[in-house]
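Fold this: RagB/SusD family nutrient uptake outer membrane protein
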Amino acid sequence: MKTYTIGFLLTLFCLTGCSELDQVPEATATKDAVFSSEKGLELYTASFYDNLPSASEIHKGDAMADYSVRIQVPDFLREGAYGPRQSTGWSWTALRNINYFIANNTNPSIPVDVRKHYNGMARFFRAWFYFDKVVRFGDVPWINKPLDVSDGDLFGGRAPRTMVMDSVLADLNYACENIRTTNDNTRSVITKYVVYGFKSRVCLFEGTFRKYQTSYTLMDTAEKWLTEAAGAADKVMKEGGFSLNEAGGSEKSYRQLFTSKTPIASEIMLATVVDPALSIFNDANWWWTSATYGARVSLNRTFVNTYLNIDGTPFTSRAGHEALPFMEEVKGRDKRLQQTIRVGNYTRINGGTAEPAPPVFSYTYTGYMPIKWSLDDTYFDGGSRNDNSICLMRYAEILLNYAEAKAELKTLTDADWAKTVGALRKRAGITGGFAAKPTAIDPYLQVHYFPEITDATLLEVRRERGIELVFEGFRFHDIIRWKRGELMEQIWNGFYVPALDKPLDLNEDGKNDVVFYKVRPATQLAGVTYINVAETINGVANPQRLKNDTSGELTWLTNIPRKWNEKYYLYPIPEADRLLNPALGQNPGW
């Protein structure tokens, strides 16, 4: 849609300019053609959609997260491997396009409400642009006009975070009040309720950031932002007309959201939509199933342990859970687990035939191999072939934004819990604990994730957010706003291996799948993957080990330190941009 709309816009510019070359300059004709009709405004604002994240950026968005085990440690987390020279993201081209539109959408022949609608669209995208910059860099220059190359403001300093975020909120409020579109069944257009949903995301981030990042001394202003977050989410919940997808029951309804060709309109609020007719696809299968193209991301066991039992009790309350083999630990759990990783009777289609598909150790290092975004037919595995839409916003996030904001404000009621976290857990097949907010703290969750949180309800809201939104690109930002960067140091652990040289049938289909060894046996079983977990391989430290040497959890890359530093809460200003404009300064520690 974006490609063709921009093409039409350029054609409109060209035709108008060419037909009036003997009357007015081409630039003037182009400007008049755009800003003198509603169609021109519509075509111009369509160009803003290019600023939304691509499908690949979304499905790869949690490649750097506390629960993501991958082929290599990200440079960002390795001492001395990342700095201003490697930093990216300081691009302002998109902003000039938006500001130019706002500055020139003044033609009095266009009705005021029409101009306000399209200005609302522009200001929404400006808010999206600036929120992304603030999350990444903190203080940034505030620019609300189209700058020329000779404009001195190009070389100004950075504005305080508070000023920029107040401006972001003003843009979002304007967009909420003036965008007229309330529904779009394609789920590819910005509507009033998408704006309210994004506002809830922005305000929750800023409110919790100010509350927990105490070095900024903005704690007194956190409540205002949390109240705005709850109010915006409540608006979507009461007026947006969305609901949780429950088609297919608890065993399918969750994953359908991520594998459906057409966005499931009941829950998906905004998506990047594929179009085979225009050869527009995404690369989800290629990235998530390839041992070479992707980062080979898998979940770690510490996080998998947070998935509840099906009765709503903590899995870690099971006696002996520490030594449960993979085949047993995945049974009787929150149904989202089996829709997020390969477990049990999961199958893939190969040449039209459904075949058992246990975790593949040429891809996964932990055994917890993701399936959330990938399609089940192996046809899609090689190249950008995927025809599933990728969601950018869905109703479940709004419910979680509401629940967390209210929990932080200490105003979350049992009724609030039931319609947010409770509804999500009920959709996941959990049979208890969804009617009233919890009062008992889960010690595992507290000790391993949030030791400073003593509110049982807030702990459970955070658990739910991690599980429901896993691999959707929220986790690292959540860690930043909660000031829990130390979570990035978590051991990269996998499932429990009971003994060396013991074949494991991971999906219990009667065929062995994997053997872990220190001395490779002279005779190997056909169809079985053999994994070396000896101390060294050819004199080099082996990155794949067992915690207790001859048994225990799998571990990966424990020999490469990941040490969180306070400076990592913000990215550095890129060195090349600071050389052009020394007034930008640098973020602390970089």
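The chain has a mean pLDDT of 94. The radius of gyration is 26 Å.
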